[in-house]
Amino acid sequence: MLFFSFFKTLVDQEITVELKNDIQIVGTLLSVDQYLNLKLDNIQVDTEKYPQFLALKSIFLRGTNIRYIHLNPSTVDTNLLQDASRREAMASAGEKIAGR
Amino acid sequence: MSGLKEYLGDRVKVLTSDGRLFIGLLEGYDQNMNIVLTKSEELIFSMDKPTIRKNTSGILIRGDDIVSVGMIDEDLEKSVEYNKIFATNLKTTKRSFKIK
Fold first, then answer.
1. Contacting residues for A6 by C-beta, under 8 A, at least 6 apart
2. Which of chain A's residues have a Cβ under 8 Å away from the Cβ of B98?
3. Has UniProt tagged this entry with the keyword Nucleotidyltransferase (chain A) (predicted)?
């Protein structure tokens, strides 16, 4: 759930998504769901090379086909992210002990 | 999976994991993201022939195989001259790191 929450903080930011078929899509993050499916608005793609993306403004990307998401460093609070991941790791360790 | 809700009834472009592109009216979808397109067609791109539009009338696409669903901007779409477009097929998103 950590990355779901993390990506929710990036809504309205401009991100670059690289898909597993090597296509890069730049766009404004509209929304994200639990599977990390993304919705982008005002997308920019190299349509010379990939005319498949002509005439598209808003796009829904299936999370399983995403390879990388490039972020602007200024939009990421690394300290907060480190903290959150430690807390999540602690919580899941606690769950394992409690579940025995 | 609320993401596709606002595309219902609209003309969409669906990219599949084998690199094919389908256009159609988004008639419905389910929790596995299987989707149904009506009045659909497949656009086949190639380097030596202009784009072929193949009528498929209606189609159900398995959610697993979907890469992206994009909402078509009708005004832009009208100005696209597919009969003048030559392009390579997209790569598959499967086993994307495999070196051939």
1. A81, A84
2. none
3. no
Instruction: Give the closest of A21, A37, A58 to B70, CB-based.
Output: A58
Substitution target from A24, A49, A52, A64 for chain B, most B beta carbons within 10 A: A52
Domain count, chain B: 1
Instruction: Decide: A77 and A10 in contact? Cβ < 8 Å.
Output: no
Residue to substitute from B68, B75, B93, B96, interface A, most A β-carbons within 10 A: B68
Q: What is the pTM of this model?
A: 0.88
Tell me whether residues B76 and A49 touch, CB distance under 8 A. no
ipTM value, please give it.
0.89
pLDDT at B77 exceeding the cut of 90: no
- Structural domain of residue B49, as residue ranges? 2-73
Residue pLDDT, tens place only, A58-98: 999 999 999 999 999 999 989 999 999 999 888 888 877 77
- Domain residue limits, chain A: 2-93
Domain assignment present for B78: no
Please write the tens of the pLDDT for every residue from B9-52.
999 999 999 999 999 999 999 999 999 999 999 999 888 888 88
